[in-house]
């Protein structure tokens, strides 16, 4: 096992990894920008190193600075958290080149799954079902027109190197396709430096279902159940559930068997998430995230597993020590992402936190690095807390979430707590009757 781990991230996820390290008796090293000098993960880590100015490009994306911090402090491994460098194959290679351990998948698998076209082709070869679409990159507008005619409108053009909804355009007719083609390529080039795009059939009422995977270096692969991430705004997840109110245990088992067998043949290691669209009883793979997900706590709550601890154990070469039959799911969990944003306009709301009172009680968990007096910087993602509740039933989890949201006090900045309160009271949400398009209509598409 490792003696010291450097955490190459910030905010609540850095604190989440730090806590797992402390429980395992592993020393932690925090890295931070000058803007995060007073951040909670910096205060609680055993050691900290400033790696640059506020800009993420010059700090949390500064690979040489992070490697240097690990070497200077004697860290043996680096945990990337999520975002930033967590799915950067070049960074994983740099970590390994300096005789350090990257707590995540192999650089090869990160690179393969990071290209959405390669990911789809690979999963199809491994027997995982796909959304109908182009067999690879669309090399010309005429190519796009041909595929659209074959799979029928509406269609979705997506950036091959994309994420977060950027480089995605819907075309409902041949007339709309030309503009969607140009806009998707231009947006992909601006966001990712790569204008390659591909096409999928646009589904009108799908749910976004993802499957959490753990795989060790000895051929054991298990799944930790499904999460329903259909509540999204502009392709960004807002609220997640485990399990899905739309999926039966038999469907979960069948999907899990398909996914774990595929990843065994793929030779995958560490944590990962397979993402699917689900409509009319059918699952279709869309992408794989080769890292820990923001919403991993809901899987932890229903399984009792500490996924960060498992990541560290796997990276240290340990066996999982359990099989699929040893994993049992209990109850239901919901996560609300609390952002420093205006709940109506969704405009960012950085600034000083005057009061901070997190909720508590049975079945309530808060993952946050906030404290009274902390100034939320304007340079990074607006996520400031994750509120998670667990209950024996979905109804109990909802009731606890409603109660917890009323107890959650953050003043000095605006947050999305009021939005979540409205969602939790909506009859369609309570009934579990929603798709990935529901929240856009509910929130007015703002």
Explained architecture:
The chain is α+β, with helices and mostly antiparallel strands. It has 3 domains: 4-103, Rossmann fold, CATH 3.40.50.20; 132-201, ATP-grasp fold, A domain (Dna Ligase, domain 1), CATH 3.30.1490; 207-442, 2-Layer Sandwich (D-amino Acid Aminotransferase, Chain A, domain 1), CATH 3.30.470.20. The protein has 15 helices and 20 strands. It has helices at 11-23, 40-44, 63-73, 89-97, 107-114, 116-125, 141-151, 174-192, 249-266, 296-303, 307-315, 394-407, 417-425, 427-430, 438-442; strands at 4-7, 27-33, 47-52, 77-79, 101-102, 155-159, 168-171, 197-201, 207-215, 221-233, 236-242, 270-279, 282-289, 332-339, 351-352, 355-357, 364-368, 375-376, 383-391, 409-411. Strand 4, helix 4 and strand 5 (101-102) form a beta-alpha-beta unit. The longest helix has 19 residues, at 174-192. It starts with a strand and ends with a helix. The model has no long low-confidence stretch (mean pLDDT 96).
Q: Tell me the CATH architecture of the largest domain.
A: 2-Layer Sandwich
Compute the separation of the termini in Å.
Answer: 48 Å
Largest sheet: 8 strands, antiparallel
* Global geometry: globular
List the strand order in the largest sheet: 13-12-9-10-11-14-19-17
Q: What top-tier CATH class of the largest domain fits best?
A: Alpha Beta
**What is the helical fraction, as a range of percent?**
25-40%
List the quaternary state of the chains.
single chain
Counting helices, strands and paired strands, the structural category is alpha+beta
Query: What is the CA-based Rg, rounded?
Result: 21 Å
CATH third-tier fold name of the largest domain? D-amino Acid Aminotransferase, Chain A, domain 1
Overall pLDDT metric: 96
What is the count of β-strands?
A: 20
Total helix count?
15
What number of domains? 3
Low-confidence stretches: none
**CATH homology superfamily name of the largest domain:** ATP-grasp fold, B domain
Which percent band covers the strand fraction? 25-35%
């Amino acid at each position: 096992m490792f003696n010291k781990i450097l955490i190459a991230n910030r905010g609540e996820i850095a604190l989440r990894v730090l806590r797992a390290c402390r429980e395992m008796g592993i020393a932690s090293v925090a890295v931070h920008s000058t803007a995060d000098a007073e951040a909670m993960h910096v205060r609680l880590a055993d050691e900290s190193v400033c790696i640059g100015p506020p800009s993420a490009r010059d700090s949390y994306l500064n690979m040489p600075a992070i490697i240097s911090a690990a070497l200077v402090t004697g860290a043996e491994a680096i945990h990337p958290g999520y975002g930033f460098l967590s799915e950067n194959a070049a960074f994983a290679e740099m970590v390994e080149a300096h005789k350090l351990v990257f707590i995540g998948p192999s650089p090869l698998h990160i690179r393969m799954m990071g290209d959405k076209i390669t990911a789809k082709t690979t999963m199809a070869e491994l027997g995982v079902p796909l959304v109908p679409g182009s067999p690879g990159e669309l090399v010309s507008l005429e190519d796009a027109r041909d595929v659209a005619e074959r799979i029928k409108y509406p269609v979705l053009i997506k950036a091959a190197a994309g994420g977060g909804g950027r480089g995605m355009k819907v075309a409902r007719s041949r007339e709309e396709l030309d503009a969607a083609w140009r806009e998707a390529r231009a947006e992909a080039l601006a966001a990712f430096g790569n204008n390659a795009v591909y096409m999928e059939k646009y589904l009108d009422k799908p749910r976004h279902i993802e499957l959490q995977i753990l795989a060790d270096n000895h051929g054991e692969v298990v799944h930790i159940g499904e999460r329903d991430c259909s509540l999204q705004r502009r392709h960004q997840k807002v609220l997640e559930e485990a399990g899905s109110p739309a999926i039966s245990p038999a469907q979960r088992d069948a999907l899990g068997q398909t996914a774990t067998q595929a990843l065994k043949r793929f030779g995958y290691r560490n944590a990962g998430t397979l993402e699917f669209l689900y409509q009319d009883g059918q699952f279709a793979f869309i992408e794989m995230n080769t890292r820990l997900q923001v919403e991993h706590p809901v899987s932890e709550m229903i399984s009792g597993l500490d996924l960060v601890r498992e990541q560290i154990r796997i990276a240290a070469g340990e066996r999982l020590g359990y099989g699929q039959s040893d994993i049992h799911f209990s109850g239901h969990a919901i996560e609300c992402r609390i952002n420093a944003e205006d709940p109506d306009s969704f405009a960012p709301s950085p600034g000083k936190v005057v009061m901070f009172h997190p909720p508590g009680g049975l079945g309530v968990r808060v993952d946050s690095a906030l404290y009274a007096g902390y100034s939320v910087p304007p340079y990074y993602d607006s996520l400031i807390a994750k509120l998670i509740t667990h209950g024996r039933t979905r109804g109990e989890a909802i009731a606890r979430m409603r109660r917890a949201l009323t107890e959650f006090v953050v003043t000095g900045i605006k947050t999305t707590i009021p939005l979540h309160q409205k969602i939790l009271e909506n009859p369609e949400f309570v009934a579990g009757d929603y798709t990935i398009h529901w929240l856009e209509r509910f929130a007015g598409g703002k």
